[in-house]
Amino acid sequence: MDTQELIRSLSHSTSSKIILLVLDGLGGLPQPETGKTELETASTPNLDKLAIKGVCGLSDPIAPGITPGSAPGHLALFGYDPIRYEIGRGVLEATGIDFAVQPGDVAARGNFCTVDGNGLVTDRRAGRISDEKCTELCQILDRQHIDGIEVIVRPVRGHRFVAVFRGEGLSPEVNDSDPQQVGLLPLDITARNIESVKLANIANKFISSARELLAEQNPANMVLFRGFSGEPGFPSMKDIYKLNPAAVAGYPMYRGLARLVGMDTLDTGPGISDVFATVKEYYEKYDFFFLHYKPTDAAGEDGDFDRKVKAIEEVDEALPELTALDLDVLVVTGDHSTPAILKGHSWHPVPILLSSKFCRADDVKNFSESSCVKGGLGRISTVDIMPLAMANALKLKKFGA
Amino acid sequence: MDTQELIRSLSHSTSSKIILLVLDGLGGLPQPETGKTELETASTPNLDKLAIKGVCGLSDPIAPGITPGSAPGHLALFGYDPIRYEIGRGVLEATGIDFAVQPGDVAARGNFCTVDGNGLVTDRRAGRISDEKCTELCQILDRQHIDGIEVIVRPVRGHRFVAVFRGEGLSPEVNDSDPQQVGLLPLDITARNIESVKLANIANKFISSARELLAEQNPANMVLFRGFSGEPGFPSMKDIYKLNPAAVAGYPMYRGLARLVGMDTLDTGPGISDVFATVKEYYEKYDFFFLHYKPTDAAGEDGDFDRKVKAIEEVDEALPELTALDLDVLVVTGDHSTPAILKGHSWHPVPILLSSKFCRADDVKNFSESSCVKGGLGRISTVDIMPLAMANALKLKKFGA
């Protein structure tokens, strides 16, 4: 029995409520001039107040040294081992545009590309066409029905799109058509097992049809496919935790990830106050809220230390709107670190703060990387956060007699 | 997929360089009079300077409470789960005398012993003959060819030697000939499966031949074998990490262990300055250096607290010769603890210090067990050290999108 099985066997529903507030890319690295990270630089009186009452620590989303992408980082936060629970590329792409992949669907990442008169690929990205052109071309290809299977085509960005094959009897174990270099013909889609032959045939017919439909659309006169994958069929948080969970996230990717683990997704406005207001509005309806805040990560990715500081301060300032809700368990953390000086995700463990009536508060007086080092949670694995939140909400029964 | 597989899928080669400086048996226990460990007693201004800039912690080589031998301790440092990656006794013995066991070889640990006129074992250690006598007897037995298999015999120490069976079609699943007590006949070597019958036959022929060749060599007139084992076929560090790794180690055991994971071994002199000079000499050629320093462990094993303190100070004094090399990532740690008051290896977690531009420095101001407790790395598993070093060298790509 793994830990998730154990949690499933011990969890029970109660009236207490858990809030998981994720500041994307929260963890940082010190600015060389000041020796302080973004979080240490930010003025965060409200988070610090929570840190005093709560228990703090650091968590590794995957394992020490591993830099997580957004999907594995969030799966870990939801208590799903991100090495075991994989999301295929096509499904992730669909998730990123808030397309609800259904059980039985197969999603593939598509590129518009350019082929010459002999069918040889001359540009794998079709000259990086505009978003508008991509949308227009997707409309040409969308909603075809091939041998009883519907093919739904949605634009992503530039030359990228998603195709979702929907209908009976599809299995995603087929190879890519993208030859990965120019000067070659697109590959036929081939099945890796007998169950996938149907999908391979339909995908090949779709590609032939696309070539005809796009003939006059040079430079985007052909498509390439990669990463066919099915709805991953993850166990639901409702099943594992007996929770009625909701996601409040402005960005499609995070709504999509939440949906894959069985959360309802609630519409919200762009600011953190909007997110908190949405929680307030639905507070009676759900007992678990995943709140996602993107600007911390976006600023980190841009290498903008000061903007990341301000993004953190913005959350801190609005925090009383959330804490006014008389919360049972509040967790504040990130899905990974995004230090501005690295301009990207990193492997550094993420600060975490857990506040509840039963959390066994530690000596940490402010919420920061260096304080969290000395926190009562120590250095934990991110998949342990949900069990800790559940325990603090008194939603886990005793194991064994 | 386990963590090592994950690392393999994420690692890529860059120009940055990693130094892993292993002070064997570094961790200690306080001298009752002073309350300070060996490392805390030693004057270590250079290590302390690194600790201030770096991040510290404690690591468990195997698991809390488990005392590691040299082989598991080092495998963990190299990022190989020491419970999963086993080295057979014969191969370990060969490794300890710097004998390069090749794929297909089978190595066995041998004892010279004494048998009486009826062939019954009267002394399993042949009166503990001298190293010189052992060498002489090994020369008598060495380089026999039996049914197309070459048997290479090398002295270890006293009554101990290694026999390596080299040739086609050998499989090491055979039982020992050592009856483990006196008054019994040596056992015939028996195969545990059909593949190993050939080795069993050849080993029995070798034993018969040895009895004849040693007939006049009382008390060392017979041999006993234990621990037949093959070259373990570990994945190479080159493959897992895309590193070009080198070991700088004076002791044969550590060169041997490094060789089993695919490191080149560089000749070096006896002192730590020699080791550092060797790194300098080869600095352009390799991107990973494992440096091994034995005197800390040797002093601990002897129960010589003061000598262990001096051994640590010797490294500290020479350290600027190493740090002058403008290192990207430097890790200083041990393979296990060897507290002088225990006169042997122990289970205590080992201090670790990691220094790099991106390490997220903590508040630790000196390198010691008690300071490392409060370090930013927390308490990690030793197998996590290589991923952390790789991450800090920016040699690991992001996991997932």
Description:
Two copies of one chain form a homodimer. In chain A, helix 10 runs parallel beside helix 12 and helix 11 packs antiparallel against helix 12 (305-323). The first copy, chain A, has helices at 3-10, 38-41, 45-53, 70-77, 89-96, 131-141, 197-213, 237-241, 252-260, 272-282, 295-301, 305-323, 369-372, 385-392; strands at 18-23, 55-60, 106-115, 121-123, 144-146, 149-157, 160-166, 222-230, 245-249, 264-266, 288-293, 329-333, 350-356, 378-381. In chain A, helix 9 (252-260) links the parallel strand 9 (245-249) and strand 10 (264-266). The first copy, chain A, is built from 14 helices and 14 strands. With 401 residues, chain A is α/β, with parallel strands linked by helices. Chain A folds into two domains: 3-85 and 234-392, Alkaline Phosphatase, subunit A (3-Layer(aba) Sandwich); 91-230, no CATH class. At the A-B interface, helix 4 of A face helix 1, strand 14 and helix 14 of B.
Write the layout of secondary structure elements.
Two copies of one chain form a homodimer.
Chain A: H1 3-10, E1 18-23, H2 38-41, H3 45-53, E2 55-60, H4 70-77, H5 89-96, E3 106-115, E4 121-123, H6 131-141, E5 144-146, E6 149-157, E7 160-166, H7 197-213, E8 222-230, H8 237-241, E9 245-249, H9 252-260, E10 264-266, H10 272-282, E11 288-293, H11 295-301, H12 305-323, E12 329-333, E13 350-356, H13 369-372, E14 378-381, H14 385-392
